[in-house]
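re: ur question from earlier - yeah i can do the single chain one, its not a big deal. heres the input i used so u can compare w yours
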Amino acid sequence: MAVQSRRPRQALAIAGVLALAIGVGACSGDSESGLDPDSPECAPYANYQGNEGEVSIYASIRDAEADLLQQSWKQFEDCTGIEINYEGSGEFEAQLQVKADGGNPPDIAFIPQPGLLARFAEAGKLKPMPADLKTIADANYPADWLKYATVGGQAYGTPLGANVKSFVWYSPKAFAEKGYKVPTTWAEMISISDQIAGDDQKPWCVGLESGEATGWPATDWIEDLMLRTQSPEVYDQWTTHGIPFNDPRVVTAVDQAGSILKNPKYVNGGYGDVKSLTSTSFQEGGLPILQGQCWMHRQANFYANYLPEGTKIGPDGDIYAFYFPAVDPAKGKPVLGGGEFTVAFTDGPAVQAVRRYLASGEYANSRAALGNWITPNNKLDVSKVEQAVDKLSMEVLLDKSAVFRFDGSDLMPAAVGSGTLWKGMIDWINGKDTKSTLDFVEGSWPQ
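and the output i got, formated as tokens:
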């Protein structure tokens, strides 16, 4: 499933520095220390002034990353007099529907699932993108990204952050000591896994627990294997129900993912047996790599936000990541990714100003300068992206030879993508066979 986004992230490595640099007030979104609108610092925000008011934003982003988020728009608040009241929740998907259906929605939400976004749009809950914002969006984002927030020909949202999911985290030092080379094919990756298992160690560590969203990391495995065992066209048919969810081609992908996830010789390094996957939080899933208890952990670039403070990330560091290999490299370089989309449930002047700002190049560079974040906004100064895996992610996003596809479960109807599929993955890990699992999900697809 997509950007953290629906998965809470943390930025532990820089949280302490930020606390000293910005003070308590910055984290609260309080604008009482507003700057003079005519000051040089406020010049970039001149087009947003004259729209004072409060704007509520609701999303799944929590903890230290929420602090980064609020810091990224702090100067905007100070210069415009617009106060942004942000709330992050681990029950975002369910509670957003409760709020919206109950007539008490936030002004703005960051939705990582196009399928959930479409549900609100079709129900008439979202405000369409006004013409001035559409002009900004068309100039700043690829058309492929904008289509994910377009429903019935009407544009509703702009991308915010992005993530690349097709990565495997590992210890460069441990690989070097064993003489392992970073695998470039699925076969090479399995060969290394077998060698590690032959030494009575568990090569893989996995965490699938995520509160009400438990199971989403397993869906990312399935999506990556769908892209690696089938064509991009078949992947698209799968996400739109152009083929049944229990199609034999889906069975092939799920079983290939299961050759790692359900293999007792391979998992769960540092935690226990196969069933421990469902009780291990996704935030902690890859940490045994740092203790030498695990060798590989498949997770998105944003996993850097969960590493302990002081962890060195890079090819010569404590931990790094390599591209999740293709099964057949001759068929191309499939890349799975995701991100959040900024949508509005209300359309007052302050809300519209915030929407325009969040879609701007000024905002993209403000957030990127704080670290641990990437975006499809083409106004981003890539030199501001400093974290090693995020640099790698930007290379992937900009690689014209890569075949990019958005997180499949996020594209599906919410009842499936963030409902029966998450539940089905947990039942599957706990012993349910592939056919019965996929039959269950197929039977839940809205008619």
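Confidence is low (pLDDT under 50) at residues 1-32. not sure if urs matches, ping me
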